[in-house]
Amino acid sequence: MKLLLHICCAPCSTEAVTRLLSEHEVTGFFYNPNIHPREEYDLRRRELEKYAEERGIPLIFSDYDVEHWTDLTGGLESEPEGGRRCTVCFQMRLEKTAETAAALGFEAFTTTLTISPHRDSSVINAVGAEIEREKGVSFLAEDFKKKDGFKKSVESSKLHGLRRQSYCGCVYSKKERTSK
Fold it and tell me: Is the pTM of this model over 0.85?
């Protein structure tokens, strides 16, 4: 099956890519206008390009549309990480992934976001299922953190020399991590 994989960053993609390649024709999709600052976004993009080249995975990049992300999450600045702001962010990125998948003839889409132990996979998969109904492209519901997925992604990141960041990506998650 031709699958478009939304990738938040190279380290999170390692285990997802490994699992998916055995059954799918995977293309990575990097759409993450939530990542702050721009230098961090560029760094994560370069890390993904390096990893995808090693694995032989084609990549598609979308715009760094930070204004759209800011508009959608406006008023949710004080939400805790994992709260409503994150759900809005998941929805924005998965909608763009589904639209891209439909436009380019992919049979399905999914995301690496479920690898994080800080993310509720049931929320992400519910958002994906809703978008599947709206956009008419199949969503592959996964929980990549299962079967030691996160632990394996950390090990794989080390093996491939990938930089693991200390925060999800947005300005608010960065502030939250820095204040701890």
Answer: yes
